[in-house]
Amino acid sequence: MRPFHRELSYTKLPELGSIYGAGGLLPMATYKKWYGTLPQSVRNEIETQWGAPEKSFTVAKINGKLQFIIPRIISGNVMVL
Predict the structure, then answer these.
(1) pTM assigned to the model
(2) Which of 4, 13, 47, 56 has a 20 to 30 A CA-CA distance from 71?
């Protein structure tokens, strides 16, 4: 999705967080619950490759909470993430 948004910061995607906006939101707290179910060895591999989740370039403080920003394009009944 980056080629479509290279000129725009993820935090400035149109209608960020709305149902039809150009970016969806996933609260860090929700992600951490899911992430915590993975075996420690898997989390270690993920963090070795990608770094700590909180330091991702797609994470920002929105509405007072850390959230992943997931760029997307919606066209009719199709959503591309």
Answers:
(1) 0.75
(2) 47
